[in-house]
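for the writeup, i need someone to sanity check this before i put it in the appendix. the sequnce is what the collaborator sent (i think, or maybe the updated version? ugh). structure was predicted straight from it, no edits. if anything looks off just tell me and ill rerun, i have time this weekend
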Amino acid sequence: MSTVPEPIPLPVTAVTCLEDRAHVERTAVLDLEAGVQRLRLGPVSALAVDRTLHAELTAEHAATVLDVRIVRSWTPRGPVPSAEDDSALRHRVHALEEEQRDLERQRERLLARLGLLARLAADLLREIGEGAGSGETERARWDRELDRVDEERDTYGERLRAVEARLAALAAELGETRRALLLSEEEPAELVGHVELTVETAAAGPVGLRLGHLTPCALWRPSYRAVLDGDALTLETDAVVWQRTGEDWSDVRLTLSTARSALAGDPPRLGEDVLTLKDRSAAERRTVDVELREEEIGALGPAPVLGLPGVDDGGEARVLNSPVPVSVPGDGRAHRVPVSVFTAAASSEYACSPELSPLVTQVVRCDNRSGHALLAGPVDLVRGSGFSGRGTLDFTAPGAAVELAFGSCDDHGVVRETEEARDTAGIMQRTVVTRTVRLHLSQFSAPGERGDRVVVLRERIPVSEVSAVEVRLRKDACSPAPGAVDAEGIARWDVPLPPGGRRTVTLVYEVSASSKVAGL
């Protein structure tokens, strides 16, 4: 068996980026001899997962992979290079560090000298006090000594202030130089991996090699940019990719997948669900307990977690492809990769749900014409005035409606008032609860503004799930009556509002229950 000592380059040509890892594919053309041969390929990332390593050969003649493995070598950091081999930045850092050490020693000497002068001044003042108390008068000598001590203290204090100022400036310059050195020069990796490949070929000649493996420290998340221009909405889909696998991805075919290979493929175990029957008491037969509860419509996808959220793909693995080869450096920073872009006609409305928020929001809707599902993620909102903020795009299937909120309108105000009246009526002594909701809508317009603005108001009406409780909308008492009420009890009004105008919308509904209902 022959062995090739020199490593053969094995570049990354295709990457499938998953939610928390990546599948890396490498290709190369090998010029092999007939027989069994051992090759050394690389270097490759030392983070490659050994058990996922797979190699395939393509050739016109018989070629077989006998063994493939990753061999890692650790290279300890060598000594500091000599001054002649250093770069200009390293020379500058060395000079600044030397100057910093000299100034620190000088500051220590100045502090010691000032401390000695302080003790000398204290001794001199004590001598003056003792001499004056005993009747000695050496005023000329005392004045001369005090003046000399004060002069030296001022001189050395000024030197200390200059040294400290130079040290502060030096620390700032040294920090900037070190950051520039960190960005411009990289230390060689201590742990390096190579692929050892043992092959057997029937004849000499070129053979194509394709090698793939999984690697951690790589992930991606969807991101969007929506530009509203009149009645047209342009939505750009990007993938934000992070990777710190120890090597750069240069001009690779990038595939983005939401598959979660770390999850187990076994079905969940079924547990026993025991049901028991119990006779109701006479009091329980006479009453029906009801309660008012909030119900949130559930959605598919991963449960929210703290930190970086997962990819919400609607419960089905999705695959997106970059249209052009991309390059992603292995620096661990976020890099945006364009995926798709489309422009579609959009409809806009000014909507408000006063029960949830007193703000009037511009909502834009259009059809998803990207050709793929839009995964849930952040979206940058841009309109005529420029960047207007960031929002969230929910999962949207191909062809479905995309709904984006472009921020609130500060020139609108909404005030919500509620009243409730309780009464007992009828022979059966039914309890009737009448609720009145008043919505006061106003617009503050600039002088000279023309045209009405239609604001869509939505208010919720309770929906009964038991026959003993009835909910009735009193259209005769509503002003005006809602234009529509859907199956979930959402009443809607399209309120035209003139510039500087005010409107009041009144909603009245009744909740009636029989006497055996408790908890209303």
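The chain is about 20% helix and 40% strand. The CA atoms of residues 451 and 498 lie 6 Å apart.
thx in advance!!
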